[in-house]
Write a structure and sequence with these properties.
It holds the Pfam family Hydrolase_4. The chain contains 8 helices and 9 strands. The chain is of the alpha/beta class. The protein has one domain: Rossmann fold. Strands 1-3-2-4-5-8-9 form a 7-stranded mixed sheet, sandwiched between helices. It has a two-stranded antiparallel sheet with strand order 6-7. The longest helix is centred in the N-terminal third of the chain and has 18 residues. The protein is globular and about 55 Å long. It starts with 9 loop residues before the first strand and ends in a 7-residue tail after the last helix. The model has no long low-confidence stretch (mean pLDDT 95).
Length: 259
């Protein structure tokens, strides 16, 4: 199935002093690499090795997405992480919304192989009581109207689907459950950005993450001028700058024996 023009993957090998560090970024549910591209380009300009893969079923058609499951999305990121680990001394992971959940799962599974985790409005649950019907509903109804372009900044389009594929959404709910169950395994430093107004992910997701992870180095930053897709919104420059400072601090603090 043809990939939409805006959904192309992005990779940069890194250069100069930053080339020893690789950063894996993941877009969110029904989105595409477009939502992470400015973030990735900022990090690449600083010399870091960067990868933004396109998750299966994304950036094509919502009907194709309904044939994929969270294990398919996770496998792409897991393979990309393995490649980055071979090419760089340290690897950080970053994710938006569902991408945040997926990189948390990577952190749970790979421990010290990941040097830090950056989360932007991550989702690990929902307060929407209607989703209790999802196990049955996804067998009967292919999609609902989508929730996309939750962006305060005028004129910005994340390029997400206008339909919500329900079989894929049901699989996402299963990813939320397995990730929540293992959050205590997350020990890496965490930088979490949360929009104070988010029409997609409720504050309960951020609270669930921060109350369950075992990380000692945790920073939560509230974004006052952005909605859900904050990587494309008014607070994006702050996300980019704070992430650069977070990575720079942790790479500088790495013990010489490991360098």
């Amino acid at each position: 199935m043809p990939v939409q023009a805006h959904a192309e993957e992005f990779r940069s090998p890194g250069s100069g002093g930053g080339a020893g560090t690789g950063i894996l970024l993941s877009h969110g549910f029904t989105g595409s690499p477009r939502s992470m591209r400015p973030f990735a380009e900022h990090l690449a300009a600083e010399g870091y090795g960067v990868a933004v893969p396109r998750l299966p079923g994304h950036g094509t058609d919502w009907r194709e997405m309904n044939t994929t499951r969270w294990q398919d999305w996770y496998a792409v990121l897991d393979n990309e992480l393995e490649r980055l680990r071979k090419e760089h001394d340290q690897v950080f992971v970053a994710g938006l919304s569902m991408g945040g959940c997926l990189v948390l799962r990577l952190a749970e599974q790979h421990g010290a192989d990941i040097s830090g985790v950056i989360l932007v409005n991550p989702s690990v649950r929902t307060d929407d009581k209607r989703l209790v019907l999802l196990p049955a509903l996804q067998r009967l109804v292919p999609s609902f109207p989508g929730i996309s372009n939750d962006i305060k900044k005028p004129g910005v389009d994340e390029g997400a689907y206008d339909r919500m594929p329900l079989k894929a959404l049901y699989s996402l709910s299963q990813l939320w459950r397995v990730t929540r169950d293992d959050l205590a395994k997350v020990t890496q430093p965490v930088l979490l950005f949360r929009s104070t107004v988010d029409h997609v992910v409720e504050p309960s997701s951020g609270r669930a993450i921060l109350s369950a992870i075992s990380s000692r180095d945790v920073t939560e930053t509230l974004l006052e001028d952005s909605y859900h897709v904050a990587t494309l919104d008014n607070d994006a420059p702050r996300i980019f700058a704070d992430t650069s400072a977070f990575i720079s601090r942790l790479t500088a603090a790495r013990p010489a024996a490991d360098a």
